[in-house]
Amino acid sequence: MKEMTEIRWHGRGGQGAKTAALLLADAALGSGKYVQAFPEYGPERMGAPVASFDRISSKPILLHSAVTNPDVVLVLDPTLIESVDITEGVLDDGIVIINTEKSPADIRKELNITGKIKVYTVDASKISKETIGRDIPNTPLLGALLKVTGMLDFKETIEDTRKKLEKKFKSKPEVIDGNIKAIERAYNEVKS
Amino acid sequence: MAKSNILARTGNEAMAEAMRQINPDVVAAYPITPATEIVQIFASYVADGLVDTEFVPVESEHSAMSACIGSAAAGGRTMTGTSSQGLALMAEMLYIAAGLRLPIVLADVNRALSSPINIHCDHSDTMMVKEAGWIQIFSENAQEAYDNMVQAVKIAEKARIPVVVTTDGFIISHGMERIEILDDKDVKDFVGQYKPENYLLNLDKPITVGALDFTDYYFEHKRQQIEAIKDSMPVILDVGKEFGNKSGRSYGFFEKYKLDDADCAIVVMGSTAGTTKVVVDNLRAKGLKVGLLKPRVFRPFPKAELADALKNLKAIAVMDRSDSGNAQEGPLCLEIKAALYDANLSKALLNYIYGLGGRDIKIEEIEKIYTDLGEAIKGSKKPKITYIGVRE
Questions:
Q1: pTM of the model as a whole
Q2: Domains of chain A: residue spans and CATH
């Protein structure tokens, strides 16, 4: 693993791309990492393509420029791949994780990815509907990211996330269990 | 450091957290992107009873600073936050706050001024009011934003000069980073209780504030204010040192990064100083003797100290995130140039205007500046002012 991992999230306005970046940073902080999470602020509207970013490092992060060559790209909405170049700037050995029911081979063909970029898919929408009861793909995608990159200790992250959710959703224990289950299922179901 | 004191916070959240711990008497504010969250979060602290502050929602930034002036003149510890057009609208009242020697603390999130309208970072808002008589402190990241806010209260009250603490819009204000905060009690002890010497609500010693001051005394009062600004310099250093004793993070007028043995260096403020440190590390690994100087206190301008820190360099590049509209160099470069002149130092000095309206500044662009400096040392002639990252 490199000293610093740069991540880009693609979503649609209102879908939780920013929240996903913040959630990951908070989880990574819990594992003793240095973090940065920031959204891209354009003229965003509900449903329009948006992006957000993370930097996760074992050392203090001084860099304050934009993320242009991400190590990992996560796509919250599968329809985005038709209109947004989701592999833009992705490094040769980069990773792309997409919320879709399709297989990585199909996506690879669809996007004409021929190089060494690794493509993973997980049906995060289905998982979130079955566990949380709503289409919130960002939480399960976090599980897929943990599996694919191994950047954080899975058990530790789950425990840390549970504690944070317990603080936030004291009166709604079903939300806590649903989110944890979503992360665990995506961790196990992500396809390479 | 207890784990509970290590948090993931945006710059805005970090500043609001500092304000919660400071627990001021009055906050009067009007929302503006990208500073809105600071007072929005703080308003929720007021609503939740976490602070004792009187929160005054007003109808404009001009009114916000007016209310702050009233509150501070009455004897209250007073804070606010704004950005860009908001700071511009406050401009008239900023001078009044400073002239009345009211120790107000303002969190400003640096944002470009209209027009064209833009919500992203540059330093033109803060630079617009650089002669208002306020102490101006720039922050590189969320940690410094928090640390500077805590120090600002003490500096303002000791020097009896208002202080503006800035962060870079969106880059820091909306970027979440790892920060370490002090315990509530430590901040409370550090800022202490505010005991103004003269204030309107002191019925035992009635005073007039804002009286007419014509040709008879205006100049004397301004002269005193000028002296007070000079006298704030040791106060800023003392508070920075004392904060270091408490937190382990000491602050001076500026930060030197691998500067002492450097042949050439960049002078840059705010978040870009962080990116420049990465470039310095990369070039040092290749054996190049490059360094960085990051001014933190822009007002008052620590002229002699800066010239001393830069005296051994063969070439210097000053990066300005604003233009002065004067057909000359940017504001930081002009001040550095004046400092070098006074110290009888004549050096290759290049100015780079960058990042206006939030334009991203990349590692490669900063590397190129060091390349330019290397060539300038060898005698190659370079333009005095370069606009980087812009289509021309």
A1: 0.96
A2: 4-189 (3.40.920.10)
